[in-house]
Amino acid sequence: MRLDLREPLRYLGVRGEPDPALLALLSAAADKLTRTVEPRWVWRAYPLIHGELPVLEGAGLTLPGALAARMLAECSQAVLLACTLGAGFEALLRAEQARGMDRAALLDACGSAWVEAGCDEVQAEISDRFPDLYLTDRFSPGYGDLPLSLQRDICGSLDAPRRLGVQVTDSLLLNPSKTVTAVIGLSDRPQPARIRGCGFCNLRETCQYRKGGKTCGA
Fold first, then answer.
1. Which H or E run contains 181?
2. Which pTM was predicted?
3. Burial class (CB in 10 A: 0-12, 13-18, 19+), 28
4. 8, 83, 104, 115: least surrounded by Cβ within 10 Å?
5. CA distance 137 to 71
6. Is residue 6 part of a domain?
């Protein structure tokens, strides 16, 4: 597993050819991170019951909103996943903060990209486990109209507090900070890419990229 430096550059808002000095510092931060911290994850597939809203049988979890219904409409199963960089990243970030906030910002961007790389690895693992099925895009609480309150249910279904040390705060944020939860549908027919563009994002009204006339590329 490798960290593509284009991803932390995207999180930093860098467009076009990056400054060589910045790229060197970012490369050093990425190297330190990937040598020190590995993403950890858990996932589980559940049969889907299709009614007014999709229900994950066995998890007792209903997925509200139009996004989940649309994403899972042709799926027989859905996967819940959680991926985290754990407390190791938090310790590394604190050490960089003591050295300078500029270094910490670079490491933080690398951390965001590294946990997403972990999610990509989970997705490849799921694809290998179900070679005859097709995966939807993964989508997370906070995308579209899928509520953040599902963080607790997803973490509970996966036993993520015990298995990964992941907790959900009172404000529905995940701790450790570089943690992602997501849903992936499994279908017997190819699925189109649907999670694209600002219309799916709950941050579209406050997004700094959009204020600058750009997008994050997600």
1. strand 179-187
2. 0.88
3. middle
4. 104
5. 8
6. no
pLDDT tens by residue, 110-144: 999 999 999 999 999 999 999 999 999 999 999 88
Which residues are CB-neighbours of 186 under 8 A, at least 6 positions away?
A: 45, 75, 76, 77, 78, 79, 126, 130, 133, 134, 135, 136
Q: What is the pLDDT of residue 213?
A: 44
CATH number at residue 39: 3.40.109.40
Task: Assess if residue 11 is contained within a domain.
Answer: no
Q: Residue 210 half-sphere exposure, CB side, CA atoms within 13 Å?
A: 11
Give, for 111, the enclosing helix (H) or strand (E).
helix 101-129
**CA–CA separation, 160 vs 109, rounded Å?**
24
Residue 110 near residue 139 (C-beta atoms within 8 A) = no
Q: Left if phi > 0, otherwise alpha if psi is -120 to 50, otherwise beta: which for 45? A: beta
Average pLDDT (74-100) is 96
Query: How many CB atoms lie under 10 A from the CB of residue 189?
Result: 8
Question: What are the respective helix, strand and coil percentages of the chain, to the nearest 5?
Answer: 40, 20, 40
| Stretch (H or E) spanning 184 | strand 179-187
**Token pair listed for 89:** 């990243």
